[in-house]
Amino acid sequence: MKLYTFTPAANALRVEMFLKEKKIDIETIQVNVREDEIFKEPYKTMNPFNCVPFLELEDGTIISETISICRYLEDKFENPNLFGSNSKEIAIIDMWNRRIELDGFLPLLHSVRNKTSFFKGKVVPGTRNEIDQSPEIVVRGIEMFKIFLSRVEPYLSKNKFIAGEKFTIADITAHFMFNLSKILKIDLEDEYKNVFRWKSELEDRPSNPINNLI
């Protein structure tokens, strides 16, 4: 297997943290997205959606999308389990991962892409386009994130991690959601005490790849 990635990218870091938690060693190839290498061959043909990361299997099959890559690797390398070990666990972890992605991670991702000058002409991942950056999308993304935080704040008073006492793939997604919130300078400590405690737990994990970028 080969993992095509670009270390600074949020979704690439999600997979990197997953690999570290699972202690999986895979050959990685850096694709410089900043210099548009992802739009050149052979990468353009391998992944027409022009995003990293993507995984190439021994038979040439390409798997893109962060969670899809992690699901495949979870099946190949069972321990430690990060997606759940029975039907109930799997459903609950998947539920929380979807909630975090849809209500937190993606709104903040679009906020960052519409606010940061680096993403001018790149507001849609995997493209270079003429779509203008929108201040309204920035504001709406932050508002959606805060609604999400208010929903999970009381829940986290009873749980160490989002799906219970066990660290899961949903926590990995959350960690990079929080990293996006830092870029937008969203303060959590005063208003969301339990969320801030959870965020701190995730930052302190040895598998946190952001520590290696600082």
Q: What's the arrangement of secondary structure elements?
A:
Layout: E1 2-5, H1 10-22, E2 27-30, H2 43-46, E3 54-56, E4 62-64, H3 66-76, H4 87-115, H5 135-152, H6 169-183, H7 193-203
Parallel strand pairs: 1-2
Antiparallel strand pairs: 1-3, 3-4
Description:
The two termini are about 30 Å apart. This protein is globular. The chain is of the alpha+beta class. The chain contains seven helices and four strands. The protein has a four-stranded mixed sheet with strand order 2-1-3-4, covered by helices on one side.
Which percent range describes the beta-strand content?
5-15%
The CATH topology of the largest domain corresponds to Glutathione S-transferase Yfyf (Class Pi), Chain A, domain 2
Shape: globular
Helical content (DSSP H or I, runs of 4+): 40-55%
User: How many β-strand runs?
Assistant: 4
For the biggest β-sheet, the strand order reads 2-1-3-4
| Helix and strand sequence | EHEHEEHHHHH
The CATH class of the largest domain is: Mainly Alpha
Number of domains: 2
How many DSSP H or I helices? 7
The appropriate CATH architecture of the largest domain is Up-down Bundle
- As residue ranges, the low-confidence spans are none
Q: How far apart lie the N and C ends?
A: 29 Å
Question: Can you summarize the main beta sheet?
Answer: 4 strands, mixed
The rounded Rg comes to 17 Å
Content-based structural category: alpha+beta
Average per-residue pLDDT, rounded, comes to 96
